[in-house]
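[Amino acid chain]
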Amino acid sequence: MHAQRPFGLKDTHEPGLRHRQLVSAAQKFPPIRTAVVHPCDDASLSGAFEARDERLIIPVLVGPIAKIRKAAASSNHHLDGIEVVDTPHSHAAADKAVAMARSGEVEALMKGALHTDELMAAVVRPDTGLRTERRVSHVFVLDVPHYPKPLLLTDAAINIYPTLDDKRDIVQNAIDLAQALGIVTPKVAILSAVETVTPKINSTVDAAALCKMADRGQITGGVLDGPLAFDNAISKDAATTKNIVSPVSGDADILVTPDLEAGNMLAKQLVYLAGAEAAGVVLGARVPIMLTSRADGTLARTASCAVVQLFAHRRRQIA
């Protein structure tokens, strides 16, 4: 998603600075082989080539070769030196890219000109997909100009109404990503509409349970608190006014929303009303997956690739 300028809000840093810093950090490591799935339009080809030019990925284009060549010609992209794997259609492209990831031929996937559901169906297929013991989830990495550090938000794209077990994996995936981005002990705010545990609001009960899971070692690597309303999660003044004493309030690194609807609306509000830049990645599969959108600008696309590159590098380190 591409940032719009906000109204009357004071920036704490130059818009897009955090994402450019991610790109610079990722450029210190070798680019990763990435299967670009069905890149049959200008947007998906441009995203792949921009990331290649920034030395973040080595793109492998997977899809109908005639359509890829046509898209490249119409947008003045050259395929010289680019590996192309021919498939008859988008379904086959998704299946082939997933098979390449299973065999270790590529370390990441990037969505091209196909629906997210089509790609993810191949990813989560029980016998031939990329499932692990973790639930697959999406994390936005947001650069909000008036928030003093990167802000991760999950899940706004994959899990519609996650269960408590799903949320445990969603939180752990986000913590793992935050650590890959250099946040040693990320602070995790479990969001709801209120700050107290209220049985009539299921998300408050889930928030309390997730915090206890962290206490018992079922979630590791982060500091959790919740339920927290959004204002208390990102504003110390709001938390102080409500007498909330918390190591997370006003200093959250990760926001965990109750469901996809809340997460998707919050992410888009931060982009279109707060001027945020949003990069995103799907985790929990055998390889990370970039779900780039045609609405994404250049920085969002390259930042998504940088996030995946940094995550893949950390995974190699701890393997």
